[in-house]
Structure formats: structure tokens, C-alpha cells
Amino acid sequence: MMDIAVIDAGGANFGSVCYALERLGARPRIVRDADGLADAPRVLLPGVGAAGPAMALLHERGFAEVLPALQVPLLGICLGMQLLFESSEEGGADCLGLLPGRVRKLAGGPGLRVPHMGWNTLEQVAASPLLDGIGSDARAYFVHGYAAPVTGDCIAACRHGERFAAVVVRGRVAGAQFHPERSSATGARLLANFLQWNPT
């Protein structure tokens, strides 16, 4: 059974993420301070809420210093993915800096509500083991008002008025803007792929 450290950053989706991992045969280990990451074979950073308070919590519990030095696979989900970037417009927060770029507020548009809530289609941008078995017309469930730019680290994009990064990868660091734990077969496959992922 695969152990995975799940960082408790105060997100409301914490329990459902752990349950989704258990359904895949993983053993989620709840981690509330940086010491708990010492022997973790892989790490998941879920998040719901605002960038500023989430980063304050990561600093308070020692995660902000430890996460950039990790040598194991790391997956950020929703806000957790946004925190992987250098900064966010949300509260002018400085983030973890593991991925280049600034998270910006979604502009919306005629007939488009912000936050972006509900199912939307993924557009594969680049091949990756994290997307194995996820079709080009796969749909995933989103809840977010801010989004990361489509850069060279983006392997799947989505559009809500503007185009934004839905899945990102750089080295051992990955992120999903959507909620895998609420995205049916698409989300389960992404999590299963992460559990088997061995980035070089």
C-alpha cells in the first residue's frame, strides 16, 4: 500500500481528498507540520480558500521552507496548485516559487460567472504520465476565481473566457487546478497516475 503525506492546510476538501486516495488503495497520512514530511515518499497539498491565509499557515507550520527542498513527487490541488507559483494577485501573496508565473483573477465575461464553478473540458497540451488514460475530451470539476497562466509547464489547459492552466508539471512538482476528488473517473485516474509517477 502506497503511503502519501497529505498536508492539512485547513482546506474544506481535506477529508474527501483522503477518501479518494483510500479508494485507490493508498494510505494517506495527515501531516500538520513540516516534521511530518521527513520520510514521505510523495506529498499532496490540497487547498480551498484564499492564497494569503493559506501561505501564512504554511509559514507558521514550517511547510513554506521545507516544500521547495523536497526531493519526492509533490501534487498541489486547486489552491494548492496556485501556491506552487511565485505569487498570486489574491491578496498580493508571495507563494512557494516552485513554478514561475503569477496567479491572476479570472476576468469572466458575458454569460461567464466568476468563480468558475462546475464541469469543464480539459485540453491536453503536452504528453505526460500524469495524463495517461485521460482522453482529449475529458471533463473535470472546477471551483476557483483565480487561475495560473498557460506556460511551458502546462500539460493540460482549460477555458473559462480566457485560457488557463488546468494541470502543470515541472520536475517532481505537479498541480491540478480542478478537484480530482470530485471529478469522477478523470480525477481518479489523475490521482492514480500520481501515485505511480516517478519523475526524473
Give an account of the 3D structure.
- GO terms for molecular function: glutaminase activity; imidazoleglycerol-phosphate synthase activity; lyase activity.
- The chain is α/β, with parallel strands linked by helices and about 200 residues long.
- It has a single domain (about 1-195), classed as Class I glutamine amidotransferase (GATase) domain (Rossmann fold, 3-Layer(aba) Sandwich), CATH 3.40.50.
- The protein is about 20% helix and about 35% strand.
- The strands form 3 sheets. An 8-stranded mixed beta sheet has the order 2-1-3-4-14-13-12-9.
- Strand 12 and strand 13 form a beta hairpin.
- The two termini are about 20 Å apart.
- The mean pLDDT is about 95.
